[in-house]
Amino acid sequence: MTATRHATTSSTHIGANLPYALLLTVGAVLYVLCRYFPVEVPFWLPWEFSWPVFLVTFLVLFWFVRGLRRGEDLAPWRIACFVLGIAMDYAVLQTHLDFYAQHMFFVHRAAHFVLHHAGAFLIALGAAGPAIRRGMPDYLAPLLDARPVKAAMNVMQHPAVAPALFVGLLYFWLIPALHTRVMLDGNLYDVMNWTMALNGIAFWWLVLDPRPKPPARLSSLMRGLMILLIELPQMVLGAILSLSTRDYYPVYTICGRIFDMTALNDQHYGGLIIWLPGTLTSFAAMIAVLVHMRINEERAENAHQA
């Protein structure tokens, strides 16, 4: 009996760890391919393989799927939004799109639009947090409630800090002298991408939280105000870059543009990406806030009548 129980426990342990072993194996294969055969790898494989991006992406997806299988109820459209957002972020960070982003300013702006706006927006709209938590190993889930993690989130999602941080990071990484250094330093380049992605998710989750206040941090009115606060500074920055007659980012000329395009045209297209799609994202966020507000009001009315 003891031997049978031991064998069963061992099989369960192996089965639980098998997905992680497979993930590490796939990551190792990708690392070798990208490290030693960079010319032969196809466009959809990483230009520069990143273990952190690879592990975070696929661990989150694995925990998300496992959380759904364990009974977390989530609407199909939210599942689709979350998976699409994760896929978009991974595409701009771990395919050859990243190579283009390092040599063309407008591609770089498109990549950051995904990380800071579109991808983060879809991830937040997916409301996948409970499913991911349910799918995580038991020893990791409590880390989400650790005091430092909660303190950081309280600061990042404070109503006075969140819009300033959202717009501030956008401006900060586009300071010409700093941007030149970042594009020539791989470590700073990674820091830039991570901060934009994480800040985008934190901000849009704050705005798109489908719950009423409480338990949500903000009321619908405050969320709408925050959307308006981030809109004008983005439009100003986009207008400056898309209408300027000065090349603020000569680093792309130094590195060599891969498309036949003048420096100013490259900068102008990048400015338009900040200006127009950013405005559309804010417009979509405002609609989502109004829809969530109406749904919560109907639920409150039905509960009161019941």
Written account of the structure:
- It is a single chain.
- The protein has 306 residues and is an all-alpha fold.
- The protein has one domain (61-305).
- It has 13 helices and no strands.
Please supply descriptive tags for the structure shown above.
mainly alpha, 13 helices, 306 residues
Q: What is the gist of this entry?
A:
By secondary structure, the protein is an all-alpha fold.
Itemize the secondary structure elements and their pairings.
Layout: H1 2-36, H2 51-69, H3 76-94, H4 97-101, H5 105-126, H6 129-135, H7 147-156, H8 162-172, H9 176-183, H10 186-208, H11 220-243, H12 251-255, H13 263-305
Helix pairs in contact: 1-2, 2-3, 2-6, 3-5, 5-10, 5-13, 8-10, 8-11, 11-13
Large-scale geometry: globular
Question: How does the helix and strand content classify structurally?
Answer: mainly alpha
Order of helices and strands: HHHHHHHHHHHHH
Average pLDDT = 91
Helix content: over 70%
Q: Rg from C-alpha positions?
A: 22 Å
Provide a count of the helices.
Answer: 13
Q: How far is the first residue's CA from the last residue's CA?
A: 54 Å
**Beta-strand percentage range:** under 5%
The biggest sheet amounts to:
none
Domains (count)? 1
> Regions with pLDDT < 50 over 5+ consecutive residues?
none
Report the strand count.
0
